[in-house]
Design brief:
single chain, two-stranded antiparallel ribbon, alpha/beta, 21% strand, SAM-dependent_MTases_sf, methyltransferase, 31% helix
Length: 359
Amino acid sequence: MVSNAPEDYDDDTESTMSDVRTGSPAPSLYSFSSSVDERFMPPLQLRTMYGRILNSQNDTYFLPADHEEHRRLDVQHHQYTLILGRLYPAPELVWRALRPRPDRRPTILDVGTGSGSWAVDMAREFPHCDVVGIDLAPPRIDGKQPSNCRFEIDDANLGFLHYIDSFDVVHARAISAGIRDFPGLLRELAGTLRPGGVLLLADGEQQLYDENQRPMAFTDPDAPGTSWLHKVFFATYNAMKNRGGNIDSPSMSPTWLRAIDCLTDVCWHKEFIPMGPWRYDDERERVLSELCRENCMRYISTLAPLLLSEGYLPESVDQMCREATAELSELRTHIYTRWNFAWAMKRPPIGSGVNNVEH
């Protein structure tokens, strides 16, 4: 049990602190196998800034880590799942990697687990597998957490040498804002895979697209007709870049995956989604556009700590966020977002009978 936890810490929570990370500003890794209330976390893990709770380990990632943000991430999780039709792309590769084995239990790693929804859902879909979710702050799990799922608090920027050849599937979704060296992270994650294992990536772009799906250029923020939503996304993009995040990684991930010698079968999928139901061709796209709008409005509400920390005046942030939310609510802007998925397999041993076909 954690020695520096408050006296009212929940004794039913199984947890450990271990000095397994070297060179970390937070020398201990916190691991737990049931839902944790952030009020009872060791003070090292969380901080309050500008009225929101943030992680205290990584200044690159400056979005909140509180209950409100986790509910947004649950909306986003629903959106991702609807885009793919399931929890993951490349189902044949994933099913093969996670097939039951007589000698060991297959394992899954979720990097940047957020609210923990993906990790929990994978644990339920694959009860014969063990799932580990890591993030800078604890998730908030609604309901009973599966016994084959646990969570660790750690910073992915510190590397994964403690997890070499440990996982059959590794998943990283919407983490680019907090990663300082994304190509380096991908090499680390490839190293955590067992031969035949699968690496899955997903992220949305900060780049917005017009109603013809053309990239929206940003020149003068005060130019007549400039969308408030576009202003907010541009300010956020620059703030995240200034903090060192690899915010352009969604479009670059396939190229970076191809550069890793131990990976093969590199593929990707990109999907445009209207930000709100200003247009849709079928019921699926209508629901996706509604989810995208809700996710975006909740996302805008998270941005104050990031923008204020970069020197924006409070009244300017309030106006941008208020007006952008109104544009979305009233469908005054016809804008697309683009969501990117990429995946690859770690080369199986020669003679294993698994084909290596790069697409």
